[in-house]
Amino acid sequence: MTRTVLVTGGTSGIGRAVAARFAADRAEVYITGRHADTVERAAKELGVHGVTCDATDPGQVAALAARFDALDVLVNAAGGLPGPAPGDVPPLEGVLAQWRANLAQNLLGAVLTTASVQDKLGPGGTVLSIGSIGAERRGGSYGAAKAALAAWSASLSSELGPRGVTVNVISAGYIAGTNFFQGQMTDERHASLVGETHDKRAGTVDDIAETAHFLASPGARHITGQTIHVNGGAFTTR
Ligand SMILES: NC(=O)c1ccc[n+]([C@@H]2O[C@H](COP(=O)([O-])OP(=O)(O)OC[C@H]3O[C@@H](n4cnc5c(N)ncnc54)[C@H](OP(=O)(O)O)[C@@H]3O)[C@@H](O)[C@H]2O)c1
What are the Ketoreductase domain coordinates in residue numbering (predicted)? Predict the structure, then answer.
């Protein structure tokens, strides 16, 4: 049976690799991003459907959801580090703007998208959201948003579980080959992040894509309400 898969933030990095992994299975894959040109280009390269949609905009998300009668897999990969508030903003307003932007980008986009399609997921359905090691340490407003993402996801699991839908977070460590660091990654920081891992390497987008593919497979139906850490041991749960 052909599965229908929606990947938000599928134009680059992790979301793009996840989309490619499901497309390789001949799933009917839809990707989103906020910019029409990159959405169109990535969709063409991957051979999937592209929809321009800002996950934090309720009207755009509703229009996206209206395209689906039924959905098998939702992967909330959209997220990232919003820039700082402009310099002329008074300090507290700047703090508020940064927190609001991070919560919108890394929590509310996933909440809105999921709310818009959750009734279209049937038995065997899967909701995945990409969290971060930043939820465990040194994350600031970004980490707080990702920690809330995991808390929300666990509670959604109890809501959708009785319908046979699993809900999990894949918490990524440092993943190279994405636009996440917006060109700011230095050799020193890269070496330091790799040094924190047990396997002494950066994560790859395929590490996350393969985990997502497994969590949406028949072998993973009893895994729900969890945060699955994919970080080479940089953070351990014991
Ligand atoms: N790379 C890492 O080391 C790392 C580590 C832990 C967690 N993560 C998480 O992994 C996820 C994917 O990030 P990435 O590393 O793959 O970075 P990326 O290469 O920058 O990809 C982010 C994707 O999300 C899209 N996007 C951002 N905001 C969006 C919005 N509001 N609505 C729709 N699409 C949006 C981007 O496209 P547009 O900008 O064109 O909209 C792009 O397609 C994020 O949630 C990030 O927090 C990354």
Answer: 3-178
